[in-house]
Amino acid sequence: MKHNFDELIERRGTECKKWNTYDADVIPMWIADTDFKCPQPVIEAMVKRAEHGIFGYPTNLNSFEQSIVNWQKKRFGWEVQTDWVEYTPAVIPAIVYAMYAFTNPGDNVVIQMPAYHPFHAIIPDNGRHILGNPLILREDGSYDVDFENLEELLKKRKTTMFLLCSPHNPTGKCFTREELTKMSELCLKYNVFVVSDEIHSDIIYSGNQHIPYGSLSQAAADNCVVCVNPSKTFNIAGVRTGAAIIPNRNNHDLFYAPLEALKAYGRTIFGTLPIEVSYNECEYYADQLLEYLEGNRKYLKEFLETRVPKIKMGNPQATYLMWLNCKGLNLEPKALQQFFLQKAKVAMNEGSTFGPGGAGFMRMNIACPRSRLVEALERIEKAVNQL
Ligand SMILES: Cc1ncc(COP(=O)(O)O)c(C=O)c1O
């Protein structure tokens, strides 16, 4: 089956956050969903299910868990068991559940800066402290892990969790096996539990490879929760369903205990169905999406290099979120955001909202039809030339 990623689809008027937040003349390239229709088999399965007309209490036949097992095996070679998989409403709630299960109020949670902005909220909002390990920016725009500093943070008495974003949003870094192994060894050494947010793991550009954290070693598997969601790949974030993979039974029970107490479980048929169909039937879509995004990424890079050299980008290894170095425009973070919004009429995420190391950058979501990307870049070129 061939998916048409060039199709322009009107999203205003569909309770769409990306398109309803800014004025009608703005191209929104911010929040991380795509402007692509989800796979046709998903649409057909949901229509068929809707036409049945009865939406009573669902039972759990393990088909949801099995679809996640299938995908991890097929795409990453990780042998997951169905009873390691736990339904969660999405990835962010799963991270919070893990914080409740594996840390105490007042503990430290380590994240790597710059960091996906909700991480900055969920840690303090739940009474834990953020310890930021700055990623090291290299001349070519890529990033390295500062292992020395990471070790200093992990060794602190109250550090009990490392929240890893793999691959990394917003820098687009895909961690190598060596880097992940080193991280896992340090976390085991200092008895720090790992939550690995792998929501972007399907969007890995050629030459790189995603390694599921739980596949590193038995010891790493016994010390982690891996959070997944096909929402980014198949554009189904609105169905609000994700999963946590917890290889160790004791950890699984610890993770599940607060949910049991709060009765915070119960899946929805329109949440699990699109995930099952996406993972079981739509590998073709994931492959074609990646190819299309590679094209967008290449177009963006060439455009900036030849026509807007004041804005620089490295060679992002993963995600459809491009981390653009706009320091050459000499604007403070607020002014930078306003410049793109008001002069170029393009909405992106301003870098300082991702914390230390983010000022001077903008995060651009390129998961849109090529023609829209072209228009946005032409607007940016014009605005920069008038600056
Ligand atoms: C790294 C990362 N984690 C989690 C999320 C949100 O996931 P969910 O909607 O499943 O909570 C996003 C969305 O952009 C993300 O980029």
Compact summary:
The chain has helices at 17-20, 40-52, 63-76, 91-102, 117-125, 147-154, 177-189, 218-221, 231-234, 249-262, 269-281, 283-307, 333-344, 370-385; strands at residues 27-28, 85-88, 108-113, 129-134, 136-137, 143-144, 159-165, 193-197, 224-228, 242-245, 321-325, 346-347, 349-350, 361-365. With 387 residues, it is of the alpha/beta class.
Question: Tally of extended strands?
Answer: 14
**What is the rounded distance between the termini?**
46 Å
Enumerate the spans where pLDDT stays under 50 for 5 or more consecutive residues: none
Query: Nearest-angstrom radius of gyration?
Result: 21 Å
Main sheet? 7 strands, mixed
CATH class membership of the largest domain:
Alpha Beta
User: How would you write the strand order of the largest sheet?
Assistant: 2-10-9-8-7-3-4
Tally the helices: 14
Task: Name the shape in a single word.
Answer: globular
Tell me, rounded to a whole number, the average pLDDT: 97
List ligands, each type once. pyridoxal-5'-phosphate
Under CATH, the topology of the largest domain can be stated as Aspartate Aminotransferase, domain 2
User: Mind telling me which CATH architecture of the largest domain this is?
Assistant: 3-Layer(aba) Sandwich
Share of residues in strands: 5-15%
In CATH, the homologous superfamily of the largest domain goes by the name: Type I PLP-dependent aspartate aminotransferase-like (Major domain)
The number of domains is 2
Q: Provide the helix percentage.
A: 40-55%
SSE-based structural type: alpha/beta
Element string (H = helix, E = strand): HEHHEHEHEEEHEHEHEHEHHHEHEEEH
